[in-house]
Amino acid sequence: ELPKERRSSNYEKLQKKHPCMSKSANVTAGRIHLPVSPTCNIQCRFCTRRFDKSLIRPGVSSLVLKPEEAIETIERAKELCPELTVVGIAGPGDTLATDAALKTFALVKDKYPELINCLSTNGFCLPSKVEEIAKIGIETITVTVNAVDPEIEAQINEFVIDENGVKHEGVEGAKLLIENQLKGIKKATELGIVVKINSVLCPGINDEHIEEVAKVTSSLGASIMNIIPLIPQNGMADVPAPDCTLLREVRKKAEKYIEVFRHCKHCRADALGIPGKGKDLHSELYKGRKE
Ligand code: SF4
Ligand code: SF4
């Protein structure tokens, strides 16, 4: 098992350069999201991207790139945003539901070894993919964990589709999702990968539980947590969005166990730029491209 000192030194090194890990880097470092992962293997109730319907969520990512196209995109992105430090993949579906993201990262490592690789996932496929992630050299992953209690998770997640194509609904699906997420997070941190946790704050559902998510994931080696307010839509359109007071309270409780990041900008799956500064450059990046 990786000693705690090494875990935190990886994190400290990254924190200086990663815009989603420190307030200072948030206004100095640039990141690009490569939209290469079209499909998802779970269904969060708040997500408008249905598992088996349209592959691209309108307004969230204007297009899906093939791994080779994504590499060409980085070249142009570096011209538009010279501060580019991080290459992230965050959808528009799940990054581990197909092999497009890992293929892309392997190409990025080869061509741009100076760029930090950041992969965002729901964590369902993490246990079977984490060794490959480490082998490619992906420095950091973000895992979205909205609950560590299946009864609560089932109110947020509708179903999961396992690697054999079998659908698991309700509490049974939620239990599988949580098991895989926690197993994957533990293995990732043991392999020296810096782990960030995203949690969507859903008032009346997990607002009193996120503290427990912080406690459990931190004990598995996660370094930082980002608590994001729910955008009420789809199956959770009737759940209210959290107000600033609730968000502040929940962040404060989580902070007892893990460092909390407060500058998340809800980035699109095809974002480009310095998150805390100026406007997003994705429309300039893809100008003239058919959507
Ligand atoms: Fe939507 Fe992401 Fe949940 Fe998949 S993991 S259903 S893309 S929010
Ligand atoms: Fe990585 Fe998420 Fe930040 Fe994108 S928004 S760079 S995927 S942590």
From TrEMBL:
<keyword id="KW-0411">Iron-sulfur</keyword>
<keyword id="KW-0004">4Fe-4S</keyword>
<keyword id="KW-0408">Iron</keyword>
<keyword id="KW-0949">S-adenosyl-L-methionine</keyword>
<feature type="domain" description="Radical SAM core">
    <location>
        <begin position="26"/>
        <end position="268"/>
    </location>
</feature>
<dbReference type="GO" id="GO:0016829">
    <property type="term" value="F:lyase activity"/>
</dbReference>
<comment type="function">
    <text>Involved in the biosynthesis of the iron-molybdenum cofactor (FeMo-co or M-cluster) found in the dinitrogenase enzyme of the nitrogenase complex in nitrogen-fixing microorganisms. NifB catalyzes the crucial step of radical SAM-dependent carbide insertion that occurs concomitant with the insertion of a 9th sulfur and the rearrangement/coupling of two [4Fe-4S] clusters into a [8Fe-9S-C] cluster, the precursor to the M-cluster.</text>
</comment>
<dbReference type="GO" id="GO:0051539">
    <property type="term" value="F:4 iron, 4 sulfur cluster binding"/>
</dbReference>
<comment type="pathway">
    <text>Cofactor biosynthesis; Fe-Mo cofactor biosynthesis.</text>
</comment>
<dbReference type="GO" id="GO:0046872">
    <property type="term" value="F:metal ion binding"/>
</dbReference>
<keyword id="KW-0456">Lyase</keyword>
<keyword id="KW-0535">Nitrogen fixation</keyword>
<protein>
    <recommendedName>
        <fullName>FeMo cofactor biosynthesis protein NifB</fullName>
    </recommendedName>
</protein>
<comment type="similarity">
    <text>Belongs to the radical SAM superfamily. NifB family.</text>
</comment>
<dbReference type="GO" id="GO:0032324">
    <property type="term" value="P:molybdopterin cofactor biosynthetic process"/>
</dbReference>
<keyword id="KW-0479">Metal-binding</keyword>
